[in-house]
Amino acid sequence: MTLDLLDLSLQRSCLRSRCEFTIQAVNNQGRIIPLTDAESRFAIKTASMSVRDIPDPQRPGEQLGSLVFSESFLESSINVEQEDGGVSTDGCCTILTRGVPAYACWLMDSDVKQSEQARLLATKEDSTCLGSVLTAADAAYLSCSSHLTTHEEGKIVFFSEGLLFVHSQYGSITVSRRHIRSIGLYNPDSSSLASLFVEHQSSLLPHLPFPLHASDQCLVFALQPGSRSHRVFFSKVLSVWKKAESGLNLQMLDQEQLSCTRKNLHSMLQKLHDSQEPPVAKRRGSLRTSCCQLPEQDMFLQHFSLSSMSQEPILQDHLGALFPSAELRGSADGGRDKVSVLILRVRSLLSDGAHSVCVCVCVCVYVNINIIAGLPGSHNEKLCEFLIRSREKSERLAVYAPHPGSSDGFSPSHLQQFLSDFLESRRAAGGRSRLLVLPPGYTDALDVVQAVLSHPDPAARACFAIGAVTACVEPLASFMEHRFAFPKLLEQCSHGVASAVVFTGPPAQRQQALAQHVQQLLRSANPTAAFIQAERGAVIRAEDVALILSDGSFAQPQMLRARYLLYPGWCRARFPTTPGCLGLVQLRLTFSRPLQRPQFVAECQALSSSLSPSPFRGNVYNLWGKARFSDSEQLMEVSYNTIRGSLDLVPEQGPEASSSSCFLVFDGVGLTEDGLKDWLRLCAKQTKKPKKTKNSLSPQEVKHIHAKRRLDPLPAGFLYDGQQYVDVWGRRRSLHPNMEDFIGEYVAEANREVELFNRQLELQEQPDLFD
């Protein structure tokens, strides 16, 4: 096109034959590497174009010389998965040499004289071709949408009928009202730049430097906040330009009235101003200066951060949240905030001669899933019970939890089958449902997320949406030894997955050093999670309940971006989670006979005192289940945490309490079934009773003996006044004078019963606890 304008179209073929274009990648050592190497993906690349031996069109046979142009750039590419399953590539690049001018221009002698004459207009007191002078020269920025322009700083003078901009390289630029079509003023607030968008006639182009020739014929003058030009413009110039007789057609603009190009121009000028703000030490080494010279750098850094992690595809529906720009949002509108499945069921078929009418009912099924994770002993099941009670009047909550007696870990297939059955049970009613998912203790929360998202039935998968992931933490039961955390503690509270962390310990422990250390650790792992205090799962504030049962926390843009950065492939369940560094196992023991409560309590306390340091083999950290004790027929729910040393015995409620079998589940390191059976036998074995002595009697027993024998006959010389015993000398005592004999008789009778019990215990053969 340019050759045609210069009447040089005949030189096109000649120039093409002498043109060479290359792209090279350079590693950190400055060596050229092939573009096919995997290393070149993140290397700086250089695109060069050269035209050798350019012929002189005016002097045949002679040459003007050679021309070389080069740009350095970085590129980024991500794979995008479409709705139909196809994968496309989205690319982005930033030109690192954009800040280096691609041209050099200067004023000729005649231009210098004209520029000096124009500059004198600002000193005249009389009216000029630009009208009367309103302000003195002060700093301002100048730019336009041309790709050749750079953001320039100069001095601006306002007149009643135009303006004058003085630049060291461009000289003086005058813009009078006869060249102006309209002026738009955009001033977001007092601390931001005020941008003047001056749309001019094409007649002004011959008088403008070529870098300011833009297709939209618009110049942007930006006034720095707090500057004299900014203050005087709003105090003097604005009122004059708003008058109809000025002929400048000034309009006040808001952000919605700006085109995307003008928004970007204002943003770049604002970044240029921010990069030059004092103090210099504060902005040194920051990205502010480069951002104003590379306008696409912000978008590129967002794009590059994702592409540098993995080549796993990103869902097309997520582009709008990952790259919040107008262009990408428009292309991602096809995504759905909530996905519903329309299930058509034939209700009736009415026949009327040759006509039949099929009546179908459209049932919309929505299932919102809230995941509540937690290590054993973190009271996540109590939090679930609290949520069910608090929402029983407004919403019915369903729960997925592994069987309390199960020792198996998390099973994705089991959860997926449950979701299918749950969806089938809700199809009749339709509408919205909420499901609370309580995974087993040492489960990575991301495994649960990936199990939901990878449901084998696409129709069922589209019905479920993860609302929020909450992690329950008991600070005193979070470390195996010193500051060595239990496996999966940080994974359950990880950034991008968990939106809330519920601390279920008592309020008194919040100021303890260990509890504060846990909070600092989790804050480092998840800077954006909300911390909630709820003793044993009892949430106090309604806002916290709403956060735990949120419908959209999991899908927030910052959460979505964190997941793509930390767990590539998570959206298609292709991120491999790792097991814990310790071989924590869970074993379940079923038994039929009742346990001895005193022995059971003593053996549980012995577990806490017998915890061994690394490698922790043989340590039991939690046990839970159901058991009966010899002193009661009622089934008890048993829970013991050895780190915290807390034992909970709660009577089982419900009609199944009488018929349920007894079982206990143990979790620990290096546990064996035979070893746990031997431990549990100690809790059921009846031992011989020791004989009593006068010194072994408790004060309660002595009090019981005296109450029983206090009215027995008194020896000579004593009387009883109803409260105390008095001898002939008037001395008083509280106990019966024959109390020593009464105690001796009691001890003898009790020892006869002990001997009888011990003989019977020796004769009878006790059945094994596990028979």
Automatic annotation (TrEMBL):
Span of domain DAAF9 PH: 109-312
Domain DAAF9 pita-bread-like: 1-93
Domain DAAF9 CobW C-like: 586-653
Stored InterPro entries: DAAF9_2 (IPR057478), DAAF9_CobW_C (IPR056414), DNAAF9 (IPR040342), PB_DAAF9 (IPR058844), PH_DAAF9 (IPR058843)
Record domain DAAF9: where: 369-570
Record field: transmembrane: none
Pfam families: CobW_C_DAAF9, DAAF9_2, PB_DAAF9, PH_DAAF9
The protein's name in its UniProt record: (spotted green pufferfish) hypothetical protein
Native organism: Tetraodon nigroviridis
